[in-house]
Amino acid sequence: MAAYIIGNIEITSPEPYASYVKDVGASVAQYGGRFIVRGGRAEKLEGPLEPKRVVVIEFPTVERAKAWWDSEEYRELKALRRRASAGSLFVVEGA
C-alpha cells in the first residue's frame, strides 16, 4: 500500500533551504519515492492550520518512507532542512 510523507513547512532561511531542495530529490528517489506536491500555491479552505510550503512525497510503502526518513542519505539533508525551516511532517498510508 502506498504511503505519503506530508509536510507543512515554513522557510526561515531561504538560501540554505534552496540547497536542501536542490539535493533532496536524489535521496527520495533512492527509496522509491516521488514528489506529488512540492510547494505549489496552497489555500486554506477550513480549520486552524495555515498552509505554508506544502510537500507530499509518495513512497511504495510506509516501511520505505520510514527507511528514507532514517537513512544515511537523508541524515545531513534533514539537519539542513531543520536549520533552514520549521514545520510539521507525518507519514500516512494511502487508500
Task: Quickly describe the structure.
With 95 residues, the chain is of the alpha+beta class. Helices cover 40% and strands 32% of the residues.
CATH topology: Alpha-Beta Plaits
Largest sheet: 4 strands, antiparallel
The main sheet orders its strands as 2-3-1-4
DSSP helix fraction: 40-55%
The secondary-structure class comes to alpha+beta
Rg value? 13 Å
List unreliable stretches of 5+ residues: none
Please report the distance between the alpha carbons of the first and last residues.
Answer: 7 Å
Order of helices and strands: EHEEHHE
* Total tally of structural domains: 1
Describe what this molecule looks like in 3D.
The chain has 95 residues and is α+β, with helices and mostly antiparallel strands. It has one domain (3-93): Alpha-Beta Plaits. It is 40% helix and 32% strand. The protein has 3 helices and 4 strands; from the N terminus they run βαββααβ. The radius of gyration is 13 Å and the shape is globular. The mean pLDDT is 97.
